[in-house]
Write a structure and sequence with these properties.
heterodimer; A: alpha+beta; Alpha-Beta Plaits; two-stranded antiparallel sheet; 2 helices; 4 strands; about 15% helix; globular; B: alpha/beta; FAD/NAD(P)-binding domain; Flavocytochrome C3, Chain A, domain 1; Methane Monooxygenase Hydroxylase, Chain G, domain 1; five-stranded parallel β-sheet
Chain lengths: ~80, ~600
């Protein structure tokens, strides 16, 4: 069956200057209840891979460098 | 995908779900017998999983000596749940409530105390005093995690349990799961299993249309309800839906439990109070619904009359606990508690015994009707059990599961069950050009809203059942691009089971009860002559069957005044007429 990709704005933002995923940090990925964050292996930075967010904020609270910001998803804002 | 493996391991006690009840069950099983292998299997990460991933702002049902007795609490919950309770289960909770608070306190969970060191209890319920604030309750998961480490409970994260393994005699023999990172299939053999997978929170679709903007942690998709059902366990009170008053568009409570004791209250658009008591009951939700629909809406939480110190205290509690992004939501809309009232709305429907009564049937020792299977927390049917009830029943379940290990042998694995389940679980990965899981989920949950959301209409629910059958066929057409999408695909299976259960149980009970939770338009009256009974649901010969289970004789008697305490939650005007338009009054259940 034919499918299409529809872009969506995602609620979790990662400040790549602060993110230390390239040093092996995976805290935000580890704590997310919905497993929606991932590490971009080329860039060595965390990012939101799936738009399935409960905006619960462990990723932001537990990030050791303050690189993660959780916005309210646009549909709810 | 041929790199995926099947991994088999054997433990004594398997606890499925590492949120609230699960960690307690695992710790208590291990404490009961440190020689046992106890495995806590978690879909997310135990450090931050479940309903209390960001902590909790208070206990809603603390039975503390000097403020309430277990008997008073049993009465309160019996009345709040319109009589349909197995009082023994509520009593077992109430008698162990205070000891659990003290134990949590000794572990480092912080509860509010007054200047003399006594617990600072607050009144929110209609009759008694049961709310104990936890203004510093944000680190409760850390406390639990430390206990898990100290007692040497084994933990696996990111494993999604999909079916229980059964022995030849129908008792539980373990569970099957898959890894949502690698797709590996896991067979975990165990002598006893504790099911603590939380609510069915992804049943209704939030009004925002955002699939994951649910009241419950959306990781809790009803997996446990589905697993218990397929294992042949009895479920109870599924028709008693969970519907909560929330901030409009935001999925957290506003929250009257926290703000009520400080002087906050729920009003209509005229700024008038319309409910006597903010404790969440179906009766209260019916009044809330009437106000929203009846021309006096929207409904608001009013705090802007309070003093600055009070408001900043409320902000600190509400914006650091349970749902801390609440503050960010208000900021985005320009809502300041000092200036504006907070617009409220009602949540999507869900199944959750923590708040209402829908769950897997358990006795007062957390045993389900399947031998060796225990259940605790939001998915176990102990009405209005909340977080503290999850801990208490988690303790019962863990202790019971440990004791059973001394009595039984490990059952052999039935290879057929494993083969069938692995085929079902892996199927979406090998299917090309199938339906995306998110699209099927959206449609299913939109249908849940269209056909099951109260007020419940017989014809609509029948159409809903037909639609859910249609979606059953779609399940065999879902494809998943990887293990993460596979998790979403298998969750759709569980959500569909829960939707069908919700429809069948609601059709079965041909009366109205629990206010909005089971407001049946075609049967508007409560009918105690025929329906003073539990409505049970069970898989019999491969089909969903409903039947009545008589209510055990009460151990705490109710007098006439108690009985009606929750029947009159609407504030009456001075002339004695209820402050509600006649049309709405006629439409809603007695």
């Amino acid at each position: 069956m034919p499918t299409a990709f529809a872009p969506v704005s995602v609620p979790v933002r990662v400040d790549e200057d602060l993110c230390i995923a390239h040093k092996g940090c995976t805290v935000c990925v580890d704590v997310c209840p919905l497993d929606v964050l991932a590490i971009d292996m080329v860039k060595g930075k965390a990012y939101m891979k799936f738009d399935e967010c409960w905006y619960c904020m462990p990723c932001e609270k537990d990030c050791p460098t303050g690189a993660v910001t959780v916005d309210i998803p646009y549909l709810l804002r | 995908m041929n790199l995926m493996e099947t991994i088999t391991q054997t433990v004594d006690v398997l606890v499925i779900g590492g949120g609230t009840a699960g960690p307690m069950a695992a710790v208590k099983a291990k404490e009961a017998n440190p020689q046992l292998r106890v495995l806590l299997l978690e879909k997310a990460n135990v450090k931050r999983s479940g309903a209390i991933s960001m902590g909790m702002d208070g206990l809603n049902n603390a039975v503390v000596p000097g403020f309430a007795t277990p008997e008073q609490y049993v009465k309160e919950i019996t009345v709040a749940n319109d009589g349909i309770v197995n009082q023994k289960t509520v009593m077992a909770y109430a008698q162990n409530s205070y000891a659990m608070i003290q134990e949590l306190d000794s572990w480092g969970v912080k509860f509010e105390k007054d200047e003399t060191g006594d617990y600072a209890m607050r009144k929110v319920h209609h009759m008694g005093t049961y709310v104990l604030p936890m203004p510093e309750g944000h680190d409760i998961k850390k406390v639990l995690y430390r206990r898990l480490k100290r007692t040497r409970v084994e933990i696996t994260n990111r494993l999604v349990a999909t079916r229980l393994l059964l022995a030849e005699d129908g008792s539980v023999a373990g569970a099957m799961a898959f890894d949502c990172r690698t797709g590996d299939f896991h067979v975990i053999r165990a002598k006893s299993v504790v099911l603590s997978t939380g609510a069915a929170g992804r049943l209704g679709l939030p009004a925002s249309g955002y699939l994951f903007g649910t009241y419950e942690n959306p990781t809790n998709a009803g997996d446990g309800y589905s697993m218990a059902y397929h294992a042949g366990a009895e479920l109870s009170g599924i028709e008693c839906f969970q519907i909560n008053p929330l901030i409009k568009d935001y999925n957290g409570p506003a929250c009257a439990y926290v703000t009520g004791p400080f002087g906050g209250f729920t009003t209509n658009s005229k700024g008038e109070r319309f409910i006597e008591c903010d404790y969440w009951s179906g009766q209260m939700m019916q009044e809330f619904y009437n106000e929203l629909q009846g021309g006096n809406g929207p409904v608001f939480l009013k705090l802007n009359h309070l003093a600055e110190e009070t408001i900043s205290t409320i902000e600190t509690i509400l914006h650091t606990n349970e749902r801390p992004s609440r503050g960010r939501f208000h900021a985005g809309r320009g809502t300041d508690y000092r200036e504006q009232m907070v617009e409220m709305h009602i949540s999507e429907i869900g199944l959750c015994s923590g708040h209402s009564a829908s769950g897997v049937w358990v006795d007062e020792r957390a045993q389900t009707t399947v031998r060796g299977l225990y259940a605790a927390g939001d998915l176990a049917c102990v009405p209005h059990n909340y977080m503290l009830g999850a801990f208490v029943y988690g303790k019962f379940a863990g202790e019971g599961a440990a004791a059973r290990c001394a009595e039984v042998e490990l059952a052999p694995v039935d290879a057929d069950q494993v083969d069938r389940e692995r085929e079902r679980v892996w199927a979406p990965l090998s299917r090309k050009d199938g339906l995306p899981p998110a699209q099927v989920e959206y449609k299913l949950r939109r249908m849940v809203n269209d056909y099951l959301q109260p007020p419940k209409v017989t014809r609509k629910m029948e159409i809903g059942l037909a639609r859910f059958e249609g979606i059953r066929a779609d399940l065999d057409r879902i494809s998943a691009a990887g293990p993460h999408e596979l998790m979403r695909a298998m969750e759709v299976h569980a959500i569909r089971d829960c939707a069908e259960m919700a429809a069948r149980a609601s059709l079965f009970r041909t009366e109205s009860r629990w206010g909005l939770y089971h407001n049946r338009v075609d049967y508007p009256k409560r009918n105690d002559a025929e329906w003073f009974a539990h409505a049970q649901l069970k898989k019999i010969d491969g089909r969903m069957a409903c039947f009545k289970r008589p209510i055990e004789p009460y151990i705490v008697a109710l007098d006439a005044q108690d009985r009606n305490a929750y029947a009159h939650l609407r504030i009456h005007q001075d002339d004695g007429t209820p402050a509600v338009p006649a049309t709405v009054e006629a439409a809603h259940a007695e």
